[in-house]
Write a structure and sequence with these properties.
2 copies of one chain form a homodimer.
Chain A (H helix, E strand, L loop, with lengths): L3 H9 L3 H7 L1 E5 L1 H8 L5 E6 L12 E3 L2 H7 L8 E6 L11 E6 L4 H13 L4 E5 L8 H7 L7 E5 L1 H6 L5 E10 L9 E6 L7 H4 L4 E4 L13 H12 L2
Chain lengths: ~240, ~240
């Protein structure tokens, strides 16, 4: 049995405000919980319908009933495993050769897919505007498929961040230069904009280069999905 | 007011079986409804809370109450516009230079994103295995952002389809040859596999070439999302 106050706390972590207040976030599903436990992140509490089913490096796992899990899960069909972890401190050091900057990404699935792409393409740092969806949102975490443990995601004021860098700053725009005709350097910053509005005006002014992914044939669809565009650009960076 | 039997029919179209039985599918949202009305697809019925708000080329729009719309919508928050359309007949002719083949894609968001990518990259034909999620599923349609009207999606037995083609057949595999080291021809077939299992064994046997998208740095994440992989491969085809 889990005490009521604890159920209330965990449920509250579905809201960004409460996650930040308590410095905690929730992960669901056997595979992802195990992956986070076996990373650098620190466990707060682990719950499972069947605690013996979880491979968690000797960490304590509390038994939880189906009913209790239903009360705290953000899933329609909770799948038996839930972990609460401490939100890691933002690392100050930028380690990557390339840095991905996100200017106002709103869709949790897009952000999760982009973090997973960064993991695949070895881009270790993602710098998000404060207007970008929170990376500890349950839907984001689900889409990262565990990659959140290997990519350093920061939130900051992009204008302040970009105005101090000496790296070339690539922005993606409908009217930019085709990425097929651009030779990308070994280090740089790549900026992806909001799903509807693209890169914001203030941030666009700080770009040193404007890139585009060319459409083929007749112009029909309005735009590429931002996660699809990120896939193509990170692939080009790493070629 | 909409008659009860009609509400019942439209609600039933949330199921694939009923869509096929009636040859009808449902689209929601002002922009997408307008896009489908203004395409080759044939209108069955259009509904709107405010019929004057829809730009539909002279087609008749029936007024519907909030309550009625809530009864037939597949959205948590219906947004005022719903269109029912006839499912177009499968076109026999393959028009494209490149054909995308999908072998068991399960996630509606992935299929929708892939159809949108085909529209962007001018790939006019998508051939799906019968195990692939139905392209007239509401979540697929939402993710296509209207591209369903410009891409010809067929469902068929892939082994039969692939065994008759004279085009080179590219499959995507974890252990394939890096796409960075492959010169892709002007015409061909590109096969993307299921999210968890990849290309099925029977279909893999019919591939003439095995491709992979190289990971950068340490091997960490297990795989690329299939829509991200499709984005990169279609970009490579069109370069």
């Amino acid at each position: 049995m889990v005490v009521k106050s604890e159920l209330k706390l965990i449920k509250s972590l579905q809201q960004k405000k409460c996650r930040n207040e308590h410095g905690l976030f929730v992960v669901e599903g056997k595979k992802t919980v195990e992956e986070v436990v076996n990373s650098d992140m620190k466990v707060y509490k682990l719950f499972a319908i069947d605690p013996s089913g979880l491979d968690v490096n000797g960490e304590q796992v509390s038994a939880i009933s189906n009913k209790e899990l239903g009360q705290i899960s953000s899933l329609k069909n909770p799948n038996g495993f839930l972990g609460v972890f401490h939100i890691p401190k933002q690392k100050e050091n930028i380690l990557s050769d390339w840095i991905l900057v996100l200017d106002g990404i709103q869709d949790p699935g897009n952000l999760g897919t982009i973090i997973r792409l960064c993991d695949w393409f070895g881009v270790k740092d993602v710098v998000c505007s404060n207007t970008t969806v929170d990376c500890y949102n349950a839907k984001v975490l689900q889409a990262t498929m565990g990659s959140i443990t290997r990519v350093n995601v920061q939130y900051t004021d992009l204008q302040a961040f970009l105005s101090t860098t000496k790296l070339p700053v690539y922005g993606t725009f409908m009217d930019g230069v085709s990425v097929n005709n651009s030779k990308l350097p070994e280090k740089g910053i790549m900026i992806m904009g909001n799903e509807g509005k693209g890169v914001s005006e203030a941030v666009a002014k700080l770009c040193t280069d404007r890139l585009a992914i060319p459409q083929f044939g007749d112009v029909t669809t309005e735009s590429l999905n931002v996660a699809s565009a990120t896939a193509i650009l990170l692939h080009e960076i790493r070629k």
